[in-house]
Design goal:
single chain, about 140 residues, alpha+beta
Length: about 140
C-alpha cells in the first residue's frame, strides 16, 4: 500500500456514516456513535477484531477503484459522490484532490469531470492545479 492509498483510507474512515455502519452489521449506541464521530481512528483501534473487520470491509469497498469505469460519466460521478477517487489520487485534510505530479499532464480520461468535482486540486508536491477562486492558481502560474 502506498502513502496515498493509506491516506485515502484514513479519509474514508473519517467520512463513514452511521448508515454504512448499520449496513455492515455494526450497531453503535448513541454514545459510541458520538465517540466514533469525534475520533474514528482511536475508535477503530479499540474495536474488537470482528467489528474492525466489518468496518475495514466498508473502507475497502470504497477503495475499489478498479471496478470504476472512469471514462463513464455516470460511474465516475457516482464514485466521486461516495468518496472513491481515481487510482493514485487521494483527498487531503482540506478536502482537496491530490494527484501525483506525474499524472498532471496525463490524467485519466474523464479528468475534466473529476477535476470539476473538487474546488481545489493540488499535486503531491503541493503545486496548485485548481483553486475555487482561481487566485492561488493565478499566483502559481505567475511563478
Amino acid at each position: 500500500m502506498t502513502r496515498l492509498e493509506f491516506r485515502n483510507r484514513l479519509c474514508i474512515l473519517r467520512s463513514v456514516d452511521e448508515d454504512e455502519l448499520r449496513s455492515a452489521g455494526i450497531r453503535l449506541s448513541d454514545k459510541d456513535w458520538l465517540s466514533f464521530c469525534l475520533d474514528p481512528f482511536r475508535f477503530f483501534l479499540k474495536m474488537d477484531d470482528e467489528t474492525a473487520e466489518k468496518l475495514w470491509r466498508v473502507i475497502e469497498s470504497r477503495c475499489a477503484t478498479s471496478t470504476v469505469n472512469w471514462n463513464s460519466h455516470v460511474e465516475a460521478s457516482t464514485a466521486l459522490r461516495v468518496g472513491i477517487v481515481p487510482p493514485g489520487c487521494s483527498i487531503n485534510s482540506a478536502g482537496a484532490l491530490v494527484i501525483p505530479d506525474t499524472q498532471e499532464g496525463q490524467f485519466v480520461r474523464g479528468s475534466s469531470l473529476i477535476l470539476a468535482h473538487f474546488d481545489h486540486v493540488v499535486t503531491t508536491t503541493g503545486r496548485v492545479v485548481k483553486s475555487r477562486d482561481g487566485a492561488a492558481l493565478k499566483a502559481a502560474r505567475a511563478l
